[in-house]
Amino acid sequence: MKSNTRNDIQEDKIAAIGIGAMIVFIALILVAAVAAAVIIQTAEKLQQNAQTTGDDTADNMAGKLLVQQGFVATGGNGGSPTAMTPGEAYMFFVRLAPGSEPAPINEITFQFFCDNGVREGTIGDPPGAGLASGAVALMDVVDPTNAAQLLDSTTGIMQPSTGYVMWIDADGGQVGAANLGLNDCSPNSGDSKVEMYVHVGNGGTTFATLDIGTTTSGSLVI
């Protein structure tokens, strides 16, 4: 009887050890599963953040307007619209940044900041032909001598890798549309420096400082 009792006790100890090992093993599996889930979730979140950041950076860098040169407007000379007089308007040579998508000009807005206040509006204001005396901002292909190429404010679309001429009337005395500020940041405003921002729809923003040394037609400001 004593021998049998000892064997039973020994067998019970072996069974207990087996159950304990199984519990530890299951616990390790559960911990590993939880850790794997956390790692996978973290990796997915980091990937999404990186992709969002990359998309936003691409939109802001590729979807912006490059201002290559800026001048005091020539007011009818060299194919410029007669409404864009030297005392009131600027003329810029621009193109979309590499990698940009085509941009409707009615989604491109501008802002001038000067000592007299803020002048702002949309390229192509007011809607319509654009050559009327009330025009505020116009855009043409890089050859301004061909008036037929003037982009229509409602249907005109800037294409990548194509150069354009952009005229902006910065004189607050001329009201082309209801959303325009009325402050004067024109070459005749008396300011030697004017800050300009150009926003392209959901794309990027371009900043430039206009250095106004003279109001003579065709004078360089950028």
Which sheet architecture does the biggest sheet show? 4 strands, antiparallel
Q: If helices are DSSP runs of H or I spanning 4 or more residues, what is the number of helices?
A: 1
Which regions contain 5 or more consecutive residues with pLDDT less than 50? 128-133, 174-181
Shape: elongated
Order of helices and strands, N to C?
A: HEEEEEEEEEE
Radius of gyration: 34 Å
Number of strands: 10
Helix- and strand-based class?
Answer: alpha+beta
| Integer tally of domains | 2
**In what range is the share of β-strand residues?**
25-35%
Nutshell version of this structure?
This protein has 222 residues and is of the alpha+beta class. Helices cover 27% and strands 27% of the residues. The chain starts with a helix and ends in an 11-residue tail after the last strand.
Structure, described:
The protein contains 1 helix and 10 strands, in the order αββββββββββ. The radius of gyration is 34 Å and the shape is elongated. It has 2 domains: 1-61; 63-211, no CATH class. By secondary structure, the protein is an alpha+beta fold. The chain has one helix spanning 2-62; strands at 65-72, 89-96, 103-104, 108-114, 117-122, 137-141, 157-158, 164-169, 193-200, 205-211. The strands form 3 sheets. Strands 1-2-8-6 form a 4-stranded antiparallel β-sheet, with no helix packed on it. It has a 4-stranded antiparallel β-sheet with strand order 5-4-9-10, with no helix packed on it.
Topology of helices and strands:
Layout: H1 2-62, E1 65-72, E2 89-96, E3 103-104, E4 108-114, E5 117-122, E6 137-141, E7 157-158, E8 164-169, E9 193-200, E10 205-211
Antiparallel strand pairs: 1-2, 2-8, 3-7, 4-5, 4-9, 6-8, 9-10
